[in-house]
Amino acid sequence: MISFQNASKAFPDGTVGVDDLSLEVETGSLTVFVGPSGCGKTTSMRMVNKMVTPTSGRVLIDGRDIADLPTVPLRLGIGYVIQHAGLLPHRTVLDNVAQVLRLKGLSRREARARAHEAIERVQLRPELIDRYPSQLSGGQQQRVGVARALAADPPILLMDEPFSAVDPVVREELQLEILRIQREVQKTILFVTHDIDEALRLGDRIAVFAPGGEVQQYAAPETVLTQPANELVRSMVGRDRGFRALSFAGAESVPVHQLPGASDGTIHVDGAWAFTLDPDGRPGDWLGSDGAPLGLGTLIPPDGSLRTVLDAVLSSPAPYAICVDAAGRPSGIVQAEDAYRAVARRGSGEAP
Ligand SMILES: Nc1ncnc2c1ncn2[C@@H]1O[C@H](COP(=O)(O)OP(=O)(O)OP(=O)(O)O)[C@@H](O)[C@H]1O
């Protein structure tokens, strides 16, 4: 666990970077520091690896004040990922990742073997390992940055705006990737971003910072969305927070009906509505009354949230949305009316 205890940082020019920060980051959790530029997120994060020394207060890791820990071994136990990845330009991908293992005293051969494993974990294409960073896309460079941070298997990972320099599509891929990796490795991750959507998507808990370096709220994303602590947090999470909060609501209250079997590659849901299956047995198109394909809309994955269900019914050309299994094949059907009712019940605070 990382504990900030009344940690403050005033710079010599009088700027207060962080003001009396007290919070705990649970072991194995992903905590996001979010807030506008200049509100002290990076300064707070850098206290953890001693790149910044608090002017008052302290930071503890597993109960030990880091002021008492020697800097080099401390940093070897903390992976650090920054914007633009910060890779060494004249080293190949493999050597960039292996470098931290060499610092830990591993032989060249062992370091390279472990680096290979880390590169595999972030799903970077193996043929890229002999390239230099400038020969990679921004997204690929960030994957290497994550691999390098994970290579030595540190218990703590600090990630400072790691995905802000890549385009939105790649950014979303990297976000999903970090969630997948976190499920596998269960590190204690501190993640800094100014993007509230990224924070809500990734965080087990999020700390909302305000200019002046003061934390306004430290809570689970759903709580930040549904019960913002004050006007500042409310304005940050935006006007569609009610809709976004549906991401955290389970869809158990929406009945899922069984589908009839397919005939001629088509499933007839009722007398009026049918959809086709592609050759792999996945949903193809809804069919109009004249048999013309109408497209599909989004599908409801296993364990989809109420937001996924609502999105699926809103985007479907039919008054239904299709549930699919992990292989993408139809597993049931939801009626749009039922989804709307579930949302209405939630909005009115009624029990499901
Ligand atoms: N070395 C320094 N000397 C003086 N002021 C500093 C120094 N480093 C940071 N600051 C100031 O401290 C405040 C917090 O900076 P910090 O970088 O932690 O903010 P941030 O929330 O991470 O913002 P950004 O997302 O822009 O990096 C800012 O006002 C910044 O100008």
UniProtKB/TrEMBL annotation:
<protein>
    <recommendedName>
        <fullName>ABC-type quaternary amine transporter</fullName>
        <ecNumber>7.6.2.9</ecNumber>
    </recommendedName>
</protein>
<dbReference type="GO" id="GO:0016887">
    <property type="term" value="F:ATP hydrolysis activity"/>
</dbReference>
<dbReference type="InterPro" id="IPR051921">
    <property type="entry name" value="ABC_osmolyte_uptake_ATP-bind"/>
</dbReference>
<dbReference type="InterPro" id="IPR003593">
    <property type="entry name" value="AAA+_ATPase"/>
</dbReference>
<dbReference type="InterPro" id="IPR017871">
    <property type="entry name" value="ABC_transporter-like_CS"/>
</dbReference>
<dbReference type="GO" id="GO:0005524">
    <property type="term" value="F:ATP binding"/>
</dbReference>
<keyword id="KW-0547">Nucleotide-binding</keyword>
<dbReference type="GO" id="GO:0015418">
    <property type="term" value="F:ABC-type quaternary ammonium compound transporting activity"/>
</dbReference>
<keyword id="KW-0813">Transport</keyword>
<dbReference type="Pfam" id="PF00005">
    <property type="entry name" value="ABC_tran"/>
</dbReference>
<keyword id="KW-0067">ATP-binding</keyword>
<dbReference type="InterPro" id="IPR003439">
    <property type="entry name" value="ABC_transporter-like_ATP-bd"/>
</dbReference>
<feature type="domain" description="ABC transporter">
    <location>
        <begin position="2"/>
        <end position="236"/>
    </location>
</feature>
<dbReference type="InterPro" id="IPR027417">
    <property type="entry name" value="P-loop_NTPase"/>
</dbReference>
